[in-house]
Hints:
Helix content: under 10%
Oligomer: single chain
Structural class: mainly beta
Strand content: 15-25%
Strand order of the largest sheet: 1-4
Number of strands: 4
Shape: globular
Number of helices: 0
Order of helices and strands: EEEE
Amino acid sequence: MKKPTIAGKTPLPVELISGKTYAWCSCGESSNQPFCDGAHKGSGFKPQVFKAEVSKKVYLCNCKHTSNPGFCDGTHAKL
Length: 79
């Protein structure tokens, strides 16, 4: 599989809403970063879909190289 496009080298702060389902872009091609807009179609990438268990602020990965898909783990600092 090819490497994802780096959409940015800083995490994006997002206020998650409890019970809401989110689809994090894993390919880096979405025009709605950090969320999926379907730009991955035909690329082999799939969005990371998750449901927020609680309402809280999180930092979603924008470099697309995290080892914790969806969430920033600091990998952007090494790219």
